[in-house]
Amino acid sequence: MYTPDSSVAKPREMLRDMFRDLARSGDLAWRLAVRDIQAQYRQNVLGILWAFITPLFTTLTWIFLQGSGIVAVGATDIPYPVYVFTGTMLWAIFTDAMNAPMNQTQSASGLLAKFNFPREALIVSGIYKILFNAGIKILLMLGALVIIGIYPGWHLLIFPLGIVSLILVGTALGLLVTPIGMLYKDVGRVIPLGLQFLMYLTPVVFAMPKDGWVATLFQINPLTPLILNARNWLTGFPPEQMTYFVIVNLLAVLMLLIAWGAYRLVMPILIERTGA
């Protein structure tokens, strides 16, 4: 429904409606997530192993490059195969979280044009899918660490905080670019390229440089403390850059609220444009 009144003029009511619709969307979000997860693995011979295969092949590639001397990755506190394997697994969780809002909205464009339901159900269903796939990745990482002989210890109790942070930041960024991506398909093609470049400025496959301008880029990268601490808690090491870690998460919460509000405001326009 189009009305002359903008919800932005009454932010308190807008915020109340946002959380009311979020509470109403739980059951629908669960049903959408179950449907999508079943469809995701039903037509694959290897099923849920695909959550493990891609990071594994990435790990083997970088182990080969590092072992052959083609690429110098720097010294790491843990064996490099563990470093790159856990890094690529954690990075995959972040990229899944960033891609989820746009993917869920695009796949539901037909439903959006025909039915009126809380749009938050799409976002929540994407988070359910991320948590399911992340759970598979975490179990595989833990199994691999035990086989190698690395035991996380009590730090494993804090590890879920690192996963929540990656999902929070990824969802906030993904929700922020979703309206533009729905209107201009080029955005969906640019995001993977940008993430690929950003991965090399994050301690995923490369160790943190000690000095130089590249070290500065690593230090100011907001994803650096998220990956570092998630990996440290998983492998039993103490956290690093905790102040920056907290700041990034607080900014991510604020950005999520702003992106969520913008998403609600532009949904009628998106439905009209995509439905046409």
Integer average pLDDT = 81
Low-confidence stretches: none
Kindly state the percentage of residues in helix.
Answer: over 70%
Overall 3D geometry? globular
Rg is 20 Å
N-to-C order of helices and strands: HHHHHHHHHHH
Could you characterize the architecture of this molecule?
The structure is a single chain. With 276 residues, this protein is an all-alpha fold. The chain contains eleven helices and no strands. Helix 4 (80-107) packs antiparallel against helix 6, helix 6 (120-148) packs across helix 7 and helix 7 packs antiparallel against helix 10 (224-235). It is globular and about 60 Å long. The mean pLDDT is 81.
Question: Secondary-structure map with pairings?
Answer:
Elements (H helix, E strand, L loop, with lengths): L10 H14 L1 H17 L7 H19 L11 H28 L1 H6 L5 H29 L10 H25 L2 H14 L13 H8 L3 H12 L6 H34 L1
Helix pairs in contact: 2-6, 3-4, 4-6, 4-7, 6-7, 7-10, 7-11
